[in-house]
Design brief:
Strand order of the largest sheet: 3-4-5-6-7-8-11-14
Number of domains: 1
Oligomer: single chain
Radius of gyration: 17 Å
Structural class: alpha/beta
Shape: globular
Length: 277
């Protein structure tokens, strides 16, 4: 089974849970640092491997008037501050090939958004940085089709890949998670991450923005961990109702200790079972 080394821990489907967690968008430094501090404290106390996540640009918002983020330069400064102050690896997403190189100078993992994972020039640019590349599985692709995405990255000279499940389109304004996808993607010999946050989206559910079902984060995340995967992807906010992007899917920072303690215990239990999961 493929594993990837990052900082002082290993990302792998049979390894202790890796948590990719932070904010949806880097909306302000005070929000970013508050969320990072809470995750840092909690993951340290629970001995969870943590990677901070934050987006400098949300380039695929529903409305032209939606908040997108601080942009590349300011966003990377925020990510660099988190990395320095909390001694944590960081991950962010890119939308254009030109962003790959500057992002690689700060970030430990480059994420390719779901809508863009088939964009060859973007994949090649990211691969050439030699960083770990995380691909969000698109809402419109089946799990077996992700083999083509992995091969594209490999042909560009980089086999350091993780795949991230985030649900599939189910009619209009809804997503559903097929639990078989985890096993199928594990069979592609890569670490599999579950984005429980965005799997709770109701795309376009608010008309000019996505709705969400944050109250179901814990049971959905537990269902994903039951499949014996590398880890989870979770977003939080000090006040989700006022978040500038995807607030309906984000958990409150106050909930982080309660939620992570349960998820960590479940991950330990699952991976200590004598099974083929």
């Amino acid at each position: 089974m493929s594993t990837l080394k990052i900082k002082n821990f290993t990302i792998g489907n049979q390894e202790p849970m890796t948590l990719m967690a932070g904010v949806n968008v880097l909306e302000s430094e005070p929000v970013v640092m508050a969320v990072a501090e809470k995750f840092a404290e909690t993951t340290s106390s629970l001995n969870i491997n943590w990677i901070f996540k934050g987006s400098f640009d949300k380039a695929n918002r529903s409305s032209i008037s939606s908040f997108r983020g601080p942009g590349l330069d300011e966003g990377l400064k925020m990510l660099e501050k988190v990395k320095s102050e909390f001694d944590a690896p960081v991950i962010t997403d890119i939308h254009e090939p030109s962003q790959a190189d500057p992002v690689s100078k700060i970030c430990d993992i480059i994420q390719i958004p779901a809508f863009l994972c088939r964009q060859t020039d973007l994949v090649v640019a990211a691969a050439k940085t030699n960083k770990i590349i995380q691909f969000k599985k698109p809402q419109f692709l089946s799990a077996p089709e992700m083999k083509n995405v992995i091969e594209k990255c490999d042909q560009a000279g980089n086999n350091k890949v993780t795949l991230c499940e985030r649900g599939n389109s189910f009619g209009y304004n809804n997503l559903v998670v097929d639990m078989l996808n985890f096993q199928i993607m594990k069979d592609l010999d890569v670490p599999v991450i579950f984005d429980a946050t965005h799997s709770l989206q109701l795309p376009g559910g608010l008309g000019d923005a996505a709705g969400g079902r944050r109250e179901y984060l814990l049971p959905l995340a537990k269902a994903g961990l039951s499949q014996g995967i590398a880890g989870l992807f979770i977003e939080a906010h000090p006040d989700p109702d006022s978040a500038k992007c995807d607030g309906p899917c984000a958990i409150s920072t106050e909930e982080i200790p309660y939620i992570l303690s349960q998820l960590s215990e479940l991950d330990d239990f699952i991976k200590n079972q004598d099974s083929d999961i």
